[in-house]
Structures
1.
Amino acid sequence: MKKSFALLVTLLMILTVALTGCGGGQKEESKEGANKASESKPVSFKLAHATWVGYGPLYIAKEKGFFDKYGIHPELVVIEDESQYAGALASGQIQALGNVVDREVIHFAKGTEETFILAMDESAGGDGIIAKKEITTVADLKGATIGLDKSSTSYFFFLSVLEKNGLKEADVTIQEMSAGDAGAAFVAGKLDAAISWEPWLTNSSQREGGHVLVNSKEYPHTIVDVITMRQDFLKENPAAAVGLTKAWFEAIEFYRQNPDEGNEIMAKALGLKKEEIADMAKGVAFFGKEENLAFFNKESDNTVYQLAERAGKFWQQKGIITEQINLDQLIDNTYVNEAAK
C-alpha cells in the first residue's frame, strides 16, 4: 500500500514537472512570437504636405504597397497653410513634412528640430517671372512694380534671379500678394511683372505683349521639395526613414514606367483631374534614386547643402533669421545612401 502510494506520489510529481516544463516552454515561445510580431509591426507616423503634384508619388507608394513592403505606415495629411504645417511639425503633431528647402531653413533656424532625409522634386519650368513686352531682360526689371508673395518660395526664387543678374531688391517696387493674385493682376495690366506659376505663366500671353521672362528651369536646384522629419522620431526610428526613402524611390520608378496610371492615382488622391496632374507634372522634375544620391553628395556641386546654405544667407540678409544654420544638423544623407544600397 505504502509502495503504491509512494509510486503514485512519484508519478504525480513527474507529471507536474513535465506539465510545468511544457507550460514554461509555451510561455517562452509565446513571448518570442510576440516580440517577432512587435518587430514586424509597421511604424506609424504622420506625414503632411500641401496639394501639389510633386508630393503625388507618396500616393503611388501607398497604392502600390511600397510602404507596407518596407514596414511603414505613414498617414498622409493634407495641410495647405504653411503656418499650420510648420506649427504641427514643431509641436510634434506630425512627424514628417514635404516642403520646399528654403522655407524649412527658416523653420529650422527658428527652433524646429528637423532633418532633411530625401529630395522629392524640383520646379523645372512650373514657376517663373512674367513681364510686360517692354521688359525683355532681367536687368529691365529695375524700377518695375512687381507682384509676389513674400511668405512663399516665390520670394526666394525672385531673390536668386536678382542676385544672379546683379540686381537688388531695392531696385524694384514689390507689391505683396498671393501668386494667383499676382498673375491675375499682371494679366489685368496692373503690374509690370509678377512672380507666379502655372496656369499664370501660360496665361501671361492674355495681356498684349505679356510673356514669361524667366522660369525655374533656367534656375535648377532653387525650388526643391524635400521630406523633413523630426529629429526625435528619426533617433527612435531610423529604419522607418530608410523605408520611406526606398518606397519613394520605387514610386518614382513606377511613375516613370507607368505615367498614365501614376497620374490617375495622384489625381484621385489630390482631388484633381488626371489631365491637370499631367499638365502640372510637365513643370516638375522628380528626384529618384540617382538624383537623390547626387543631390545629397557633399562632394558634388548644386547639392542640398549648397542650396540650404544659400537660403540661410538670404534669410539672414533679410533679417528673417538671425544665426547661421548648422547644415550637419539640418541635413543627413545617411537615409538616401542606405536606401540606395
2.
Amino acid sequence: MEEKKYLKWYNKVGYGSGDIAGNVVYAFLSSFVMIYLTNTVGLSAGIVGTLIAVSKLFDGVTDVFFGSMIDKTKSKMGKARPWMLYGYIGCAVTLVAIYAIPANLGQFAQYAWFFIAYTLLNAVFYTANNIAYSALTALVTKNSKERVEMGSYRFIFAFSTALLIQSVTIKFVSVLGGGAAAWRTVAIIYAVIGLIVNTISVFSVKELPEEELNESGDGADEKYSLVEAAKLLFSNKYYIMICVTYILQQVYTAMLNMGIYYMTYVLLNENLYPVFSWAINIPLIIALIITPMLVAKWKGIYKLNVVGYTLGTIGRALVVVAAYLGSVPLMLVFTGIAAFGMGPWQGDMNAVIANCSEYTYLTKHKRVDGTMYSCTSLGVKLGGGLGIAITGWLLEFSGFNGTVATQPASCIRMLYFMYLWLPMIISLIMTLIMSRMNVEKANDDIRNRKLPLK
C-alpha cells in the first residue's frame, strides 16, 4: 500500500531552504575563521585550535539538553519550530561577533572574545536551531520517501550555499578593502541573509499533531529525564554509528575547507580554492538530485550509502595520486568523483536518523525524535570544531606563520598530509561504519517478529 503523502513541493523546498541559513553560519565559519584569525587578527593557530577544542567540552551536554527540551515543548508552533526560529537570532549575533574582534584589544582579550562568541554560537544558539531544524524531518511527515526528499532538498541548498560562500568570500572581502573591517561587513551581510531565510523556512512547514505521530497506539511514554534521554540515545547502537560518522564527516569537510592554505602555499594560487569548491559541490548537488530516485530503485538506503562511500574512498585515493603527479586537472576530476559518491548519504541521512529514532521507539517505546536528531548538531559542532582545532594544532606544529608569504618545508609537508591523506583515511573509516549501519533491516526484523529486540 502506498504511504500517505503529507507535503507539497513548496513545503519541501521551503524546508530545504533553511540550510541556506545554516550554511551562511557553518560554511563561512568552517572555511574562513582560521585564516581570518591567523592572517588578519594575528592570533596563533595552535592557541585558537586549543580554544576551539576546549569549547567542544560544552557541546555534548547542550546537544542532549536541547534535544530533550524540543521533545518536551508544547506550543501553537509545535515542538521544534520555536527553537529553530528564535535560536537563529543568537546565531546571527554571535557570528558577527566572531568576525568583529576589536583590533585595539590586548591579545589575551582577543582570545577571550573569540572563545566566548564561538562557544555561545556553537554550544547554545546553533545547537537549538540545528537540532530543531533536523528534527522537523520526523515531525512534519511520516512518509519515508518524503523524508528522503526533504533531506535531498536540504542538502542541495546546503552545498549550493557552501559553494557560493567558498567561491565569493575572499573576493568579497578584497572588494570591500580587505582587513578586519571587510570581514566584519561580510559577516553582517551573511547574518542578515540567514535571519530572513531561516524565518521563511520555519513558516513553510507545519508539524503534525502528536496524536498522529503516535497513532500506532502502543502506549508510548514520552516522560523521561535528561539522564534517561542520554541513556536512550547511547543504548541505540545505530545512534552511536551515526554520531561517529557525522563527526568524521565534519572533520573530513574541515580538512577540505583548509584547502585555502594548500592552494595558497602549495599550489601558489589561492584562486584555485573556489575551483576546487566547484569540483566538490556540483557533483554533490547532482548526487542529491538523483538520490530519491536511487533510493526507490534500490529499494532502500543501506546499499546505496555503502556503494557510494566506497566510490568516494576510491576517488580520494586517486586525488592523492594525482597530487603527487602534479596534475591539478586530474585532482579536480577525482575530487568530483569522490564528492559524487558521498552525495547520497547527505540526502538520505535525515531519513536514516528517522529510522534510528523508530528503532528506539520499537525497542524502548519512547518517542525521542528531537533528542535523536541531536546527532546532527553534535556531529557538526564536534566534528567541525575538532577539524578546525586539528588544523590549528598541525599548522602550529609544522611551523606555519601567517605573516610571511613563504612557509617552511615542514609546513608544506603538513599541508600535503592534511589536505590529501587525512580525507582519504577518514573516508575509508566512514565506509567501514556504513557497512554496519543497516537500521532499516533491524526495524523490519522487529516489526516482523513483533517482539522487543533483546
3.
Amino acid sequence: MPSEKKLPNVIVADPQPMIGWGLQHYLPEHRLAQVKAFVSDTDSLLEALNANPDVDLAIIELALPGSRGRDGVHLIEWVRRHHPDVRILVYSIMGAPLLAAAAVKCGAVGYICKRHSLNLLDEAFARLAKGETYIDPMLRQPRHTGRPLSPTEIDIIRRLAHGATVGEIAERTNRSVSTISTHKRNAMLKLGLNTDAQLVAVGLLDWLGEI
C-alpha cells in the first residue's frame, strides 16, 4: 500500500482573521498543506519562523503590519536571507502584474491575488511541488497600455517611492503640484498600479529601469 503524501508545513501571515481561518481549513481539506501557525503581523511571523524550524512555506500578505518596518518586498528579502529553506507564496489583496513580478524577483516562489478563485491555490501548490514558480494567470500579462514611461515619469515615481511628497517634488523640480500629480497618475496607469502602496513596493526595488 503506497504511503500517503507528506504535506508541506506552512505558516499563514495575514492581518485578516477570516483569511487565516479560511486557509487553515482549505489547505488541509484539499490535501495541499498543514498549517502550523497563523499570525497577523510581521513581528509574530518572525517569531513563528524561529519557533517552527520544520516550516516549508510561508503564505504572506504583502500589506502586513508590524513594528519592525519589514513589510512588502522587504519582508520577502528578510525571510529569504534569514530563513533560506522557507519558500514564500504571496497571497495578497494587491493585484498589480508588476508587483507580482517584483515579488518573485525578490525571492517569492508564487503570487496570487485574493480577489481571484481559491482554485488557484491548488494550481499553485501543484507547481510548487515540482520546484516551479507560480503567478496568478490574471497577473501574468501587463494590464498597462504598453506605452513606456517617460524619463520625467520614471523620476517622479522613484522620488515618490523613496518618500518624497508631490509638493516636495514640485518644489525641487520647479514644476506645479498639478503637473506632478498628472505625471504620477499617467505613470500609474501605464504600470497597472492602483494604489500608492503598490507604487512604493515596486519603486523601492528600483525596478522601473528594467520595464
4.
Amino acid sequence: MARAHLQNRVLPTGEIVSAPFRGAFTGNRGILTFDEHGRLGTSRWKHQHWIVCDLVHPRGRYHGPQPARGWTPLFFLDEAIALAAGHRPCAYCRPKAYRAWLEAWTKAHGQRPGHKEMDAVLHSARTKRNRVQVRHQSLLSDLPNHTFVLTEGRPHQILDGSLFPYENGRYGTGISFDHLRNAPVTVLTPAPTVAVLAAGYKVETSLADAD
C-alpha cells in the first residue's frame, strides 16, 4: 500500500495537513517528528524563527521532504500563504527578499530589528501556546494586497480589489469586494506582517494559476 502524504503542507489558517498539492516554497520551524503514518507529533515548532525558504539549497542541493538532520521542511503553495501562517523570508537562501522585508519592516514599525527581536514580535502575533492561530479584525478597505482574510468560511487572498478563495491547494476566481470595502473581516495574516505588506514588501504569489 502506498504511503500517505506527509503532514507537512501549511494552510493560510495555520493548519498543517497531509495533501497532494506541491509547494513553491518550503519553510523551517526546527526538527519536527512524524509517526509511521506520516502524521506530525504534538509539536508545531521548536523555535520562534519561522522562515520561508527556496525549495533548492543555495548550493544547488535538493534537501527532500525529510533531510537527514537539522530541520523538518514544511511546504506552502506560495509566499502569501507562508506569510499568513506567520513565516518571514529566510536571510540565507533568500537574501534579496530578506533585505526587502527588513526595509519594509523598518518603514512599517519605525525601527530596524535584529532577527530574534523580529521573530519574537511575529510569534506573539501568529499563534497561541495551544497552537491556535492569532487572528484580528480589520476593514477590508484598510488591508493591503496579499493579506489573507477569512470570509464565507474560507481563506481568501486580497489582490487589486478582489478576494481570491483558496482551497485544496489552488485559488478560485476572484470576486470584487467593492460593496464590502467598509465591512469588518477576520484577518489571518499576522498584524505585524500586514503592516510590512502595506509598507511595500513584494510577495511571490501563485494567483496567476487561479481559475
